[in-house]
Task: inverse folding
């Protein structure tokens, strides 16, 4: 490694390519003099970095000690490595040179002067241009965005997280960045697992709910109508029963909102919410309705339902209903200018908070939103998960300590919801209060007890805000006009048939045409993503095509058979979409 030989070339490439890390470096403007001062050759003859205490990063142990296990044993196509800390590039270079070209490498370096030092030692332009390497600004938003591009690696290969032990000698920010990145990877895991295994069912439900949703109204009509509202979000956590008395006493003052799953618990506690909401596509929502002692309890409770829900649940619900379009579904692009299309998160409490925030609510009180449990009771009685006795499972559950010093348990889904709520709180002008019941701490929310609610003032909305919002919900449930979309199944069938013939021809001499086969599959994948109406339902097929393009070292008969299967699935789904969205013989232009 030569000191700072390549810095100017690497920086110029990052600037010309518009890489976000270039803007981050320019914003922080690290002093090159610090780099020149700290870089030196140590007693072992290698380029080293002098830390604040005068010691070199590698003065006690040479680089191979830190990075010997960083190269994956399996040379998987399409895998990825996320590196926290550059340490002059020793570990990074070890990974770059020891993995296939399809292996992606993301690097997060929290210290700008360390990034400068790394960029000065190695010419990374070829790796950057190929897309194998990317430097990521060390902030949550940039890391989250960069990790989203590793979906193929997650689904068809592996993602490795490498935290540079040498860098950790310099300060706590490296460990903190590792924890943040690990959390983002966990969120990505939940999101992609949901998409991979559930997207087909969820968007299929949307198709079958389309006509009903048009008749059940539009939430776009309640935009801004919750101004001045105080919303009490009733979760089904174990603490709900303990706080039921104070919530009952002041029922008339608060606007109470809950998940559909919480209704049976609230029925048993004598608390009727003003609104309920559900996003779960599973048929266990039917169990929530079965758990009601009297179905009439829900007859006058407005129900906001995700259009991805099982149609059977909607048919059973006895009260008024309004559709909620959520991101990732068919409305993401084609209805975004006509409807509220909400990022629902993965937890119904998050969805409720985001919907009411969008509508204009100005204060939130979280009750029973424990996102954790003690002992064996994970939910309040009446919830469909409350019937069984839960035993701590270290492979799925997480052990924590609450504010009282007591041991509590949670799981990654609850922790993801906690992070989502905390992120929303940090970005919101609304006030958040947590009726703390011994669960996880929600940062940004003021912890309160039942005594803080006894006067009822904290629960009350401004003026007639509650009445105004309830009236807006009633008006929102009126039918809306139904868009009609042109059928395109024949166009898709012709295009895919032509591509398939070309692919079969190339496969006859596959060894000679490997590059052309990969390029054609890439073009087919691009085509499968070109129409925003069809793309959400084709998620699995699009990802399977991406797997063929990015994780196969060679193409042959097996890959041709895989493609033909994908093609058949695509055409079947296109015809299903046409049948549900454009059911008449007169198509829209």
Result:
């Amino acid at each position: 490694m030569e000191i700072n030989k390549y810095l100017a070339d690497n920086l110029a490439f990052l600037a010309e390519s518009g890489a976000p890390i270039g803007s981050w470096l320019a914003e922080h403007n690290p002093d090159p003099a610090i780099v020149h001062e700290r870089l030196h050759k140590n007693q072992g003859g290698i380029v080293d970095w002098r830390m604040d205490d005068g010691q070199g990063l590698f003065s006690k142990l040479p680089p191979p000690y830190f990075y010997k296990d960083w190269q994956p044993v399996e040379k998987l196509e399409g895998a990825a490595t996320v590196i926290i800390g550059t340490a002059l590039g020793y570990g990074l270079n070890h990974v770059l040179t020891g993995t296939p070209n399809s292996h992606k490498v993301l690097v997060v370096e929290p210290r700008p002067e360390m990034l400068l030092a790394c960029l000065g030692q190695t010419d990374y332009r070829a790796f950057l241009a190929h897309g194998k390497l990317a430097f990521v600004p060390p902030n949550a938003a940039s890391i989250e965005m960069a990790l989203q591009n590793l979906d193929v690696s997650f689904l068809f290969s592996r993602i490795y997280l490498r935290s540079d032990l040498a860098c950790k000698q310099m300060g706590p920010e490296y460990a903190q960045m590792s924890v943040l990145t690990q959390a983002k990877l966990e969120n990505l895991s939940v999101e992609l697992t949901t998409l991979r295994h559930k997207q087909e069912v969820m968007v299929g439900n949307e198709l079958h709910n389309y006509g009903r949703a048009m008749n059940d109204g539009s939430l776009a009509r309640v935009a801004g109508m919750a101004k001045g509202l105080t919303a009490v979000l009733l979760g089904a956590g174990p603490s709900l029963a303990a706080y039921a008395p104070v919530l009952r006493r002041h029922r008339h003052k608060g606007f109470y909102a809950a998940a559909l799953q919480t209704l049976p618990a609230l029925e048993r506690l004598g608390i009727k919410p003003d609104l309920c909401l559900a996003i779960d596509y599973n048929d266990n929502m039917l169990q929530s309705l079965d758990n009601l002692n009297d179905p009439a309890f829900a007859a006058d409770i407005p129900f906001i339902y995700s259009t991805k829900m099982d149609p059977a649940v909607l048919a059973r619900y006895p009260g008024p209903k309004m559709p909620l379009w959520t991101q990732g579904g068919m409305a993401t692009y084609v209805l975004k200018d006509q409807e509220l299309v909400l990022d629902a998160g993965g937890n119904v409490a998050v969805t409720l908070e985001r919907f009411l925030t969008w509508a204009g609510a100005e204060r939130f009180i979280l009750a029973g939103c424990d996102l954790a449990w003690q002992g064996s009771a994970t939910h309040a009685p009446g919830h469909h998960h409350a019937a069984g006795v839960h035993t701590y499972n270290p492979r799925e559950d997480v052990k924590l300590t609450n504010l009282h010093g007591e041991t509590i348990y949670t799981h990654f889904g609850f922790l993801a919801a906690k992070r989502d709520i905390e992120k929303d709180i940090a970005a919101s002008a609304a006030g958040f209060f947590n009726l703390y019941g011994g669960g996880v701490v929600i940062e940004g929310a003021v912890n309160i007890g039942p005594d803080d609610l006894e006067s009822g003032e904290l629960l009350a909305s401004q003026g007639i805000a509650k009445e105004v919002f309830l009236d807006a919900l009633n008006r929102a449930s009126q039918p809306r006009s139904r868009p009609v979309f042109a059928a395109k199944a024949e166009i898709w069938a012709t295009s895919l048939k032509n591509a398939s013939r070309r692919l079969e021809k190339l496969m006859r001499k596959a060894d000679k045409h490997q590059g052309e086969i990969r390029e054609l599959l890439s073009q087919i994948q691009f085509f499968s993503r070109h129409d925003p109406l069809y793309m959400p339902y084709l998620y699995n097929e699009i990802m399977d095509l991406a797997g063929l393009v990015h994780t196969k070292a060679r193409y042959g008969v097996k890959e041709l058979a895989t493609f033909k299967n994908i093609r058949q699935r695509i055409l079947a789904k296109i015809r299903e979409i046409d049948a549900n969205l454009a059911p008449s013989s007169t198509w829209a232009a």
